[in-house]
User: What shape does this take?
Amino acid sequence: MTRHFLDVDDLSCDELDAVLALAGRAPETLRGTLEGRGAAVVLEKPSLRTRASTELAVWQLGGHAVVMQGSEVGVGERESPEDVARTLAGYCSVICARVARHDTLERMVAALESIAADVGVVNLLSDLAHPCQALADILTMQQVLGDLGGLTLCYVGDANNTFRSLAMAATMRGMKVRIAAPDGPDPDELDAVARLGGELEVTNVAFEAVTGADVVYTDVWTSMGQETEGEVRRKAFRGFSVDDDLLARAEGSAIVMHCLPAHRVEEISDSVIEGPRSRVWLQAANRLPAVRGLLGWMSGAGGAG
Assistant: This one.
């Protein structure tokens, strides 16, 4: 059965284990998984880590990435998501898309299922979720901290798409999850974690949330598409910067993570992102093995997919 990956909970806990195990394997052991096959990479939004990691992962698996900017495709304007998906299904084995609206991905999936196409859809980012980032995040935490069961992840900042996917992935690995934000997550986020057997601890006091945490994670306060809200958001998020004073409340062995790009005068200080506890650059590098493991798994490597 064709699998799609629109958010982390499209995987079971065992399947997440399998994807992460493949991510930890040397690239040459997966070479040939996509031999002679194409992967469409549709980028409606600007990209650095996502494009580089996805394109290289497809190449390492022996396939060919066909990269298309949003202006070239015109999803929802020049052509509907359904028509784009059905067309690309004639050429490619997987469609990886970085989109403005999550329902674009859902419409692609529905169109492919309507014609029984053996083509998976991967969410490279949407307004709702950022699951490939979450895979890289969990991979990084495991490499640095080992078994994550019982450890505490504290997310400081905007309860955005990155947080949603990260909270689910961390819960699936047995972590306790806290968030410090001016406004808490939507009820849907709380329900998503609850369905996975976890519980979100929510507060609007950053110092309180960070106390005793094993991982301190932050992201930009103003995401792509929210630029007109920048000044309002900067005011709302005062007191939520991950700086040395805030980090001092975490466990002495705690690590710091940020999915990038970073606004160093806002959500994180220079001294923290460049400091000894930062694992931001390992996290960024892990975008490659994470998506390689995912695409390998979806294509049947390791007997799964």
In short: The first strand starts at residue 38 and ends at 43. DSSP finds 14 helices and nine strands in the chain. The mean pLDDT is 95. The radius of gyration is 19 Å.
